[in-house]
From TrEMBL:
Pfam families: PdxA. The keyword Ribosomal protein does not apply. Binds 1 divalent metal cation per subunit. Can use ions such as Zn(2+), Mg(2+) or Co(2+). This is 4-hydroxythreonine-4-phosphate dehydrogenase. The gene is pdxA. The lineage of its organism: Bacteria, Pseudomonadati, Pseudomonadota, Alphaproteobacteria, Rhodobacterales. Pathway: Cofactor biosynthesis; pyridoxine 5'-phosphate biosynthesis; pyridoxine 5'-phosphate from D-erythrose 4-phosphate: step 4/5. Keywords: Cobalt, Cytoplasm, Magnesium, Metal-binding, NAD, NADP, Oxidoreductase, Pyridoxine biosynthesis, Zinc. Its EC number is 1.1.1.262. It is found in: Cytoplasm. Its main location: cytoplasm. It comes from Limimaricola variabilis. Its cofactor is Zn(2+); Mg(2+); Co(2+).
Amino acid sequence: MKPIAISCGEPAGIGPEIAATAWKRLRGEIPLLWLGDPRHLPEKTRWQAVSGASEAARVSATALPVLARDFGAPAVPGRPDPTHAQGVIDAIRDGVDLVRDGHCAALCTAPIHKAALIDGAGFAHPGHTEFLADLAGVEEVVMMLACTALRVVPTTIHLPLSEVPARLTPELLEATIRITRDALIRDFGIAAPRLAIAGLNPHAGEDGKMGGEEIAMISPLLDGMRAEGFDLAGPLSADTMFHAAARATYDAAICMYHDQALIPIKTIDFSGGVNVTLGLPFIRTSPDHGTAFGIAGKGLADPSSMIAAIRMAADMAQARATR
Ligand SMILES: NC(=O)C1=CN([C@@H]2O[C@H](COP(=O)(O)OP(=O)(O)OC[C@H]3O[C@@H](n4cnc5c(N)ncnc54)[C@H](O)[C@@H]3O)[C@@H](O)[C@H]2O)C=CC1
Ligand SMILES: NCC(=O)COP(=O)(O)O
């Protein structure tokens, strides 16, 4: 198979070390191509500079293939350096180009420190999700986090909580539901996806006594989409839709804002969760965690989520190739 491109992420975080460990565990199984400055990899990493994806596919069983960029300076674990910011952004761009041009099967991004990119390079996006949508020229994309026990989707993503109600429009919620359902069918092999939709307010608004968005917007939209054949439950109380028996009734939970979606999944399975962007013209996954500055460079980082993200990218690519 073609390699999975891995963008380096924040060099002062755990991204380089979990990519190196993931290569050790996956070599011989999934070819990789790491994009970044090789000085930022752990010292003992067995890596090899390559000129592109086909060379990466050949060497990946014996060394971590690296498409090298010079970021100008080594990294100090835990201390992001603003001079690295442009290199971090360029590595993501390289990954997108490799995947869009058909050289790599998918892109798996290591975590970035958003503030460092904003301060160091004027990065205009709150995260990969929005940046990748911009690079792909796509209006609407969806963030989904998935583990064995749960899939969650935040309808609004990287927003201050105070801005959520105004940004939560029927158009956005409808697009989120449609993109999620299409992806569950296409990439996750679920023929008739069941979606559970959270309310915004406590007790899903308690019949309008604790907020009006459910009655005014969410319920009418869901009714209209049910008439079209969508299998939708809700709006549901967010506090009671994530226990095991409730999870068994749906394939993905559509939530109204970031923490409503991410707290349950990171609580249930922090090490196995994968962040996947739906609605892009290419495959992108990522570990569910961030840069973990406190443990960077200490050999303590758990590579499980990165490995799960690479495996999911490879599985999605395989599924698309065989259809
Ligand atoms: N996809 C991305 O680029 C993401 C980037 N971030 C960024 O990461 C930075 C730090 O965010 P935080 O909220 O502190 O979350 P974090 O996930 O970096 O850390 C939260 C806690 O989990 C631990 N942890 C995280 N990953 C671990 C691993 N693989 N093994 C062992 N322990 C691990 C950390 O040591 C810390 O105690 C922020 O700048 C945030 O924006 C956060 C999430 C995703
Ligand atoms: N909390 C999830 C997160 O911040 C990941 O964002 P993105 O960089 O994948 O858009």
